[in-house]
Amino acid sequence: MMLVLQLAAAAVLAVPAAGASASPADSVPSCRTGITETCRSEPDTIPRRRPRAVEVSDAYELRLRIHRYASYTMIPLFAAQAISGNQMYVSGGPDPSWAKTTHNLSAGGLAALFTVNTVTGVWNLWESRGQSEGRTAKLVHSAFMLASDAGFTYAGVKLGPDAKRSAERRSQHRRVAYISMGSALAGYATMLIANR
Q: What is the pTM of this model?
């Protein structure tokens, strides 16, 4: 008798009252079964956040193009600097005239290159500050390139004139220049990898 009453109470509770709305589970379509079950019992409640649109100017694209094309001259200028600088470093007597001329011209070329690329790069970094896509790579690239800017400036302005008179300063000039080249190449590689 008790079992019959319990079953009757369960049946009464399971039937929705007149005018009551169906539960969300009743509105879920039947699940397709296969290897895995593909239906959900609850709707997705986490709202998807739309990426914010960042508008950049036409000048941004022009500066980016200048920055990229100018960067292609960096490795040949580094090679000219390293070859001529190494020849001047190992020469026991007066420096060969071709090495002095090549070293001075390529140093001027590097100064122009790094000036142009620093201006265009920092300007574009500022203009695209709201973009999250590729931000980390741009910041790492900027850090490497600004560090090499500082190193080349120190090597050329402070250590360059002293390198003509002192073997210790000449060695220090060479070391700072190679470290700066390494930093610039790491920054260059960062953007090559990020833009693949």
A: 0.70
